[in-house]
Design goal:
With 361 residues, this protein is of the alpha/beta class. The protein folds into two domains: 59 residues, DNA polymerase, domain 1 (Orthogonal Bundle); 268 residues, TIM Barrel. The protein is 29% helix and 19% strand. It is built from ten helices and 14 strands. The strands form three sheets. A ten-stranded mixed β-sheet has the order 3-4-5-6-9-10-11-12-13-14, covered by helices on one side. Strand 12, helix 9 and strand 13 form a beta-alpha-beta unit. The protein is elongated, with a radius of gyration of 21 Å. The chain starts with a strand and ends in a 34-residue tail after the last strand.
Length: 361
């Protein structure tokens, strides 16, 4: 990893402060952000409206490198998965999920994951390290440039979900700054409702969410029964459902917003009438939404996907009892790009990313 800061480790406010300490004019922030976020040019020698002296100062203080798209593959349903390679040799996967009205980027927060959920392919990898702020932001920039080249200049990433590899709240500070950059009007200027942070239920960090930018929150619940949830998520042994919901009650929700509870539906494990009753008893109907995710099988998994009819019955049963419930459409499962299927693979061949003027790391 570079010993100097990356230029994308800063939002406009913090970069302005840093430039001031360097004796440089604060208006440079607008020019720098225009080159990076509007023009998508990382080669500082092309920044023609910044003096040579200032460019040399910036080079001495910041890194401007970007990771490589090592490999990508598109599913039959239009979902595209990417393997991203960093300078230190580590890799993560990210996914663009396409629909008629939106392009959603599922990005990663860590190389691997320490949580060890038994239904998740990433959990079999273990945790290698956190991603830095710029490694998170650059996933968006790489995906945006690929999309523009593949679909045309009008095609853009409309939504971001922190649902790729890793536990975002385990990488709290870097994800916090990345989110500030995503929301920064001088940066990427996304709306708060366009970003969803998904957490496995890391209680000490949930209790700090008042320090995090106000985005959508999704909680990986998967069972209202402690014994079953602990089987699926070892984290539940440390932070059981009671303690989890004590923390959830402190989350600062904006008006008319709900917390989404992700529920991986697994055949013969958490798919019964008893499970439905437990969910209805546990969740606040006015502030909750249940997102049912039919389990996506992966190599070596001991769990099985439920039948479509059972998924439909489970969802309808929750709705009839007053909970807002929807089923997440499975996308990208034929290329292991669906929920819970991501895992870094170092065996793919490099692919060139045209149309992205940059210096690669």
């Amino acid at each position: 990893m570079s010993l100097i800061d990356h230029i994308l480790d800063y939002d406009s406010e913090s970069l302005s402060q840093r430039l001031k300490k360097m004796g440089m004019p604060s208006y440079l922030v607008n020019q720098i952000f225009d080159w990076i976020y509007c023009k998508r040019i990382f080669d500082i020698d092309q920044w023609s409206n910044i003096s040579l002296t200032n460019r040399e100062k910036l080079k001495s203080e910041f890194s401007f490198s970007i990771p490589k798209i090592v490999w990508n593959s598109t599913s039959k349903d239009g979902t595209t998965k990417f393997l991203i390679g960093f300078k230190d040799g580590h890799q993560v996967e990210m996914v663009i999920i396409s629909s008629l009205k939106r392009r959603t980027l599922c990005l990663s927060s860590q190389v691997g994951c320490a949580i060890g959920c038994t239904f998740c392919h990433t959990g079999t990898q273990g945790l290698t390290r956190n991603l830095s702020t710029h490694e998170v932001v650059l996933q968006f920039l790489l995906a945006s440039s690929w999309l523009k080249d593949d679909e045309g200049s009008e095609s853009k990433i409309s939504n971001i979900v922190y649902m790729g590899m890793g536990e975002p709240l385990h990488n709290f500070e870097n994800m916090k700054m990345a989110t500030k950059i995503f929301l920064d009007p001088k940066g990427l200027g996304l709306g708060q409702r366009r970003i969803t942070l998904s957490t496995s239920g890391l209680v000490p960090q949930i209790e700090k969410l008042d320090e995090f930018p106000p985005v959508n929150i999704a909680i990986s619940l998967h069972s209202a029964n402690d014994e079953v949830r602990s089987e699926l998520m070892p984290l539940n042994r440390a932070y059981d459902i009671k303690r989890l919901f004590q923390a959830i009650e402190k989350i600062p929700l904006k008006a008319f917003r709900r917390i989404t509870y992700e529920y991986i539906l697994i055949r013969d494990l958490n798919d019964s009438e008893e499970d439905i009753r437990a969910l209805v008893s546990l969740l606040n109907k006015k502030e909750s939404k249940v997102n049912i995710i039919p389990f996506n099988e992966f190599p070596g998994s001991r769990f099985k996907k439920p039948a479509d009819a059972l998924v439909e019955w489970f969802c309808e049963s929750l709705n009839k009892r007053g909970l807002v419930a929807t089923v997440r459409v499975t996308k990208g499962d034929d290329i292991l790009a669906a929920c819970g299927q991501l895992k870094s693979l170092a065996t793919k061949k490099p692919s060139k990313l045209p149309g992205f003027s940059s210096i690669e790391s």
